[in-house]
Fold these 2 entries.
Entry 1:
Amino acid sequence: MKKARLEAFSDGVFAIVITLLILNVKLPETDYEHLAEGLPGMLSSIGVYALSFLLIGMYWMFHHHTFSFIAEVDGVILWINIIFLLFISFLPFPTSMLGKYPLKELPILVYGINLILLNFMGFLGIVYLRRNKQLSTSLFTDAAFRTQMKTYFGVNLMYAACILIAFFSPLVSILLLTVLTLYLIIRSAIFVGIGKCILPDGRRDK
Amino acid sequence: MKKARLEAFSDGVFAIVITLLILNVKLPETDYEHLAEGLPGMLSSIGVYALSFLLIGMYWMFHHHTFSFIAEVDGVILWINIIFLLFISFLPFPTSMLGKYPLKELPILVYGINLILLNFMGFLGIVYLRRNKQLSTSLFTDAAFRTQMKTYFGVNLMYAACILIAFFSPLVSILLLTVLTLYLIIRSAIFVGIGKCILPDGRRDK
Amino acid sequence: MKKARLEAFSDGVFAIVITLLILNVKLPETDYEHLAEGLPGMLSSIGVYALSFLLIGMYWMFHHHTFSFIAEVDGVILWINIIFLLFISFLPFPTSMLGKYPLKELPILVYGINLILLNFMGFLGIVYLRRNKQLSTSLFTDAAFRTQMKTYFGVNLMYAACILIAFFSPLVSILLLTVLTLYLIIRSAIFVGIGKCILPDGRRDK
Amino acid sequence: MKKARLEAFSDGVFAIVITLLILNVKLPETDYEHLAEGLPGMLSSIGVYALSFLLIGMYWMFHHHTFSFIAEVDGVILWINIIFLLFISFLPFPTSMLGKYPLKELPILVYGINLILLNFMGFLGIVYLRRNKQLSTSLFTDAAFRTQMKTYFGVNLMYAACILIAFFSPLVSILLLTVLTLYLIIRSAIFVGIGKCILPDGRRDK
């Protein structure tokens, strides 16, 4: 299995999931005169649509970044990647749940667990790569490994906090998740480089 | 992030959205004897399907053209592009709305705002590229920048006009949008080159 | 616009349409005990699924073959190709119609017209290529042009016959369309080469 | 037809099918208070989703492995591959059936037959390749052929056993299918190589 083919397959899955999300934004089953009544439901669906779209876009970038550490794909990395994609492909389900039952704790619980499991697969991949250095590129330095570990632990902690807060105030939980997503997006944008297209440590991302 | 990978991902999203549109053309829930009664609804869905299909095809070409100006992708261009794709992926929703409630003002309003936001992201990308010339190719001349600016302002003005007209006559609004789409298609076809495959300014598009 | 990018985009649309077809094969809304009653409906949907899948697979091959005649893509070929893809993407609609109302004339009429318009776009492309020889490859000989013309006329004649026959016997019409599809598949398989992978005229397809 | 284009098309279909599966995991049509009642149905859908996702992932790897034996694609291999993809694309239907009617014999029967037909197309391809050695690569040794034959017969025997057992105990049948899938995954992971990325026979997979 060439690395490039696994990457192309993963990109395909990302592109399809991100585009399928719109199927969860549904019109209410009413005639035009009563469409206004269905508006709040539509707006919550649209908000959740945007959140999931940006999150999946962010994971796509992150997936790409992780693959810059991988020189060769073995059977374990391959299956860790497929199960990672399983959790990416699953996201439309909690997304539709969150759109249909906004500001309730159960959808946030399912959404949060999905994201935690997603991160867990990424974490597993990085740990496995660390123990099988012959599969990694020279970009996978000790510093890169530690940054990844910190990111996984930090983000999962935030996801867990969102879940816990949901039992007290679903609204605060959703707002926190939105802020976290925007923070991760800005951080990823800075990482790829702003303006001068230079990585924080002065190397160019390829 | 290599430019080629972002382009391939964008192409994937375009191909999926354009193909998903057909899921909005639904059969009425009647038996065969009463199928004729559902015909007007189906025909309006099919008309809107064709309009959105051609519009997305046109934006795909335009996206490709814009990327000929980009030499290197940084974090800002990457996220502008992802949010641009968010608005492309959203189009099936106003399309289904327009198909279900034809000749009403609200669907046209949502459809029009979607298109204006789409253009706004493209506009943002071009302005950012102008301010970060080190990311652009030699094709991104002052003349090319001005042409892009004129196109964004002109087309958004037309979209805004369609929205305004919808409050007086939805039919005229839809007809205007259709004529505008056909005009943009013919213009894009001429730009890529007719017959001799030569750009207006004598250079070949690659 | 490079030819390769238009081909990749077209391949993407083909792959998505062919895979979306399964969404039209739906389970009846009954509990398990009454599932048997919904079986005839499911079987007709499955039959139509297989027919459309094979037809689209065949058009995919044919599209690939046609592109071997094209050296450069201009604006007209580009838009002929996008409208061709519009009719490919539309096929799931008559497919679902034919599955829901089997052995009725209207679905066959819509299905047949869709196929005829599909062929018409292909025909238009070939005629345009003939008049703009500078866009064609050396494979686009006079003999190749005549073969294409004969195929379009012959197949469209058969499609028209299927539509006409549908008004007398939908069953015979569907059977004829199935036989025609199988004939086109066998013909295309022979054309690509059997066993020795040689084209009929001794050249290898690349 | 270049082998690479057929592989890319097949990869596209695999990526789309594997991602479409989530559309079968549906929310119950109840308000939030009664969501708990729909939970068992959702859980069975989710379980079947995971099973089909992993199975399709496994077939994707297997498809890739099989193509390493093919040097040139002729018309017969092309159509065997398209019909193989037809059975891959069909899997969402028995998957949704199994999710809607869990622990019933009919869905397992349909699911099992689908898998057996899938394997049959793969088997057909390998036998055809054996008889047309000029189309195969040097990797397609006698030993490789025998391994493939054994795999097809062994796995189909297990699928048939799952179907038979379903008439006595659907639960045992599903458990057996799950164990078989996990076994095939582990086996495929070992085959691609664990840790040192070396094939069982010491050659590296490319």
Entry 2:
Amino acid sequence: MQISEKKINFANYFDFMDNDLKYRRLRVQKLLSEAGADACIITTNVNIYYLTGKVFTGFIFLPAEGEMLCFVQRPVVIEDEFTIQIRKPEEIPAILENREIALPKTLYLESGQITHLEFLRLEAAFHPQKTGDATSVLRTARMIKSPWEIEQFRISAVCHSKAYSEIAPLFREGMTDIEFQIEIERVMRRNGSIGIFRAFGGNMDIFMGSVLTGKNAETPSPFDFALGGAGLNPTVPIGACGEKIEIGNSVMVDMAGNFTAYMTDMTRVFARGKLPEIAYKAHNLSIAMHNRLMSEAKVGTSCADIYKFSLEMAENEGLVEYFMGTRQQAKFVGHGVGLEINEPPVLTPRSKEILEPNMVFAFEPKFVIPGVGAVGNENTYLVSNNGLEKITKFDEEIISI
Amino acid sequence: MQISEKKINFANYFDFMDNDLKYRRLRVQKLLSEAGADACIITTNVNIYYLTGKVFTGFIFLPAEGEMLCFVQRPVVIEDEFTIQIRKPEEIPAILENREIALPKTLYLESGQITHLEFLRLEAAFHPQKTGDATSVLRTARMIKSPWEIEQFRISAVCHSKAYSEIAPLFREGMTDIEFQIEIERVMRRNGSIGIFRAFGGNMDIFMGSVLTGKNAETPSPFDFALGGAGLNPTVPIGACGEKIEIGNSVMVDMAGNFTAYMTDMTRVFARGKLPEIAYKAHNLSIAMHNRLMSEAKVGTSCADIYKFSLEMAENEGLVEYFMGTRQQAKFVGHGVGLEINEPPVLTPRSKEILEPNMVFAFEPKFVIPGVGAVGNENTYLVSNNGLEKITKFDEEIISI
């Protein structure tokens, strides 16, 4: 399982990568065709990386049929048939015409990611008859992971578990949540975390992940993450706030596993001394939810049903008032992961999505116990034809510190 | 000078903060009036923080004249006359009408920050006769800092210097750039860094800052930062890449000073053993550029002239081929800083901006010496009526490690 320990044959590896990029490109082209688009222009880091395996400042021209062209502003590149250095996007239409490539009548742009001004500029440069939304096309394509992408998750998961195994010994008597988090961040980085936490949506500001303890776990957040916390400064109101970790507190550690471009999401709970019984009951219920997910969910399972059985189980155990928060309760129990931490599908009561092969998603049924902290695990799962595979493997019990 | 060591009278402090928010709001309202806007809708974290001192998910309605209203989606808030909980932006127009507030005919939206789809949604909800760009209004307002904001920079600068004073002892024989950077990150965090690195523009992905050594300093970057570096992974191609720090290498440390919401920018150079003479010559030239800036620049100085004298000095010393990079050279020597690391003004050859009182900007004349690394300092300056004040104070010579 430990891909990172396999010996890689690099000649084969680059073939693999190359085929994989072709597969991803073809997926996007198929979706473009189905949507009636002639072409799309891609200019966001995340989608450029998806289509090329690298990041540059510039524009990808991807027609529904035909060759993909990369128009690069920065860095300076060696030009080839498919890579052209430009200064500004307005140069692209003339270059296409010189190559006898028809300008797209229906052009898809990343309307859900690029700014309104960027959209207007591209629209003016290409003056298509019609525009459409490439953001949803790319998010749909990216929802089903390719073989190379799945391998990247496995590498992230192994590093993620390794880093988490180093957490407990970091705790020192008298530490605050943020002091503990800083040591955890260091261990994540030393295990290869690239640091950057990519999320879809402009306002999801968070730094590496979240460490919550005590009453701070109840603090509602302005963000669409599962839990809140006051944060260190009103400018980033999420996560650790300088609260001392006391005996009888849980410490929930939810750091993004960004050891490759593909993030695993994993939460584990640590505790000082003995917690109240209700905390163990809630934590065990979270484990039971994961077990039920593993045994029941498969290709075809409705994402809304996963939310529903989780809520039902919380209700049956009388723990619903603590489920996914107290003062503010998140209305989801999981989400797709990938190049961004919040990809489709979403596990909400009204989700229309079903599990499909090669989706990768995080399931995070959590409880906030007032005065104690948060409990419950989060794991990342791969949907395969044989059911779910849990890829984030690490002790699931509450770990003493 | 060390604000963080002053005893704060909190009653006065909140008055101060309150007056300051009023001042910032009035600045924006004045610019809206001048632009002919009836109102703007603000929904990005950075501008919400600027206008309220907090972050929420929702919308600020700020008319060119009259009271500001906050429409909050998350977190759950206590409503008052000026704070209203909503589920979606489409509710806002009816609430305004109920309060007998005229719907804006000319509505400014953050076109340079919100996505095209967000723009369309707000436009459909308010159906104004005309729209305009609130992004440039807010960036113009934010360019001139208020008294409270200037105090925040001073607090950041003190912590920044303190953290930098702890860097040299962190070096251990055999370390790579990333190993050294991880220890620097920890020290930044322990001194209060909030971690998040806010930049204007969707594609400016970077983690906390950059540590460059040896030949990696020459690697061109896709990003609009002063220097490059290959990074750890093609998905974030900037900064440290795992290169060993060898004798005869410089190590340029350029970490964002985000100890408050207002970032100071400061670069210092460390070195192992003796560097080639040209490295010291270039570093001393950078110091001379800073000295010239301090002695010549004042209210009214053209930002383009600062670029021009820097380039001239590099030419006169025969160092222009190393100035701001080698294979790819940045065409700026500085930039405004604030809630984002790249605010106006910009110090470019064609900048039309002039220095105005209470601007805060970073000046970073740097050189890349092939095989050695990068040299040159960066400091953050406040423009006052008495000239420039350097707020990032720390040893400027190359520091041995």
